[in-house]
């Protein structure tokens, strides 16, 4: 069977419908280009974003603070930042968890920031479930430790009461009929 020729897809179609959101922005955050994937994820048309919004405008308040204090300075110093997990704000107001990679490059004489955005809703749910499972495990462990402490205290009190009353303990396993005796029973006998 002869090798099938791969389909030829125009570069613009690859850009517009990439498996990630792609943005080009000025260093002040003003959006210069946004692909269809990104626009669809946030509920905007490209003409509503390009030259009208900044990347920071699409972040939550915490994301804006992070952008100001960490993201922008790192991008200025290093020229790139990777795996920034931030929430974006959808047009209708709900948050969309995203992973962002940014690279600063010159296009002609103008430095620009190129962003690749990945929606991480499933990852976000998984991380929340892991945190909840960890919290539940820690709670169960603390409860078990408290129960063991209480059991140890009760055993110590029982031992003290038995010794004070000069009482002796023995029992019989109902399944095997085997008898078990406390050491003090031997002294009694």
Features:
189 residues; five-stranded antiparallel sheet; elongated
In a few lines, what is going on in this structure?
The protein is of the alpha+beta class and 189 residues long. It has six helices and seven strands; from the N terminus they run αββαααβββαββα.
Task: Describe the protein.
By secondary structure, this protein is α+β, with helices and mostly antiparallel strands. The chain has helices spanning 11-16, 36-42, 46-49, 61-78, 121-164, 183-188, and strands at 21-26, 31-34, 80-89, 95-107, 110-119, 170-172, 179-181. A 5-stranded antiparallel sheet has the order 2-1-5-4-3, with helices on both faces. A two-stranded antiparallel sheet has the order 6-7. The protein is elongated, with a radius of gyration of 33 Å. The model has no long low-confidence stretch (mean pLDDT 87).
Beta-strand content estimate: 25-35%
Using only C-alpha atoms, the radius of gyration works out to 33 Å
Q: Could you spell the SSE succession in H and E letters?
A: HEEHHHEEEHEEH
In helices, the fraction of residues equals 40-55%
Structural class, from helix and strand content?
A: alpha+beta
Question: What gap, in angstroms, lies between the N and C termini?
Answer: 93 Å
Layout of helices and strands:
Layout (H helix, E strand, L loop, with lengths): L10 H6 L4 E6 L4 E4 L1 H7 L3 H4 L11 H18 L1 E10 L5 E13 L2 E10 L1 H44 L5 E3 L6 E3 L1 H6 L1
Antiparallel strand pairs: 1-2, 1-5, 3-4, 4-5, 6-7
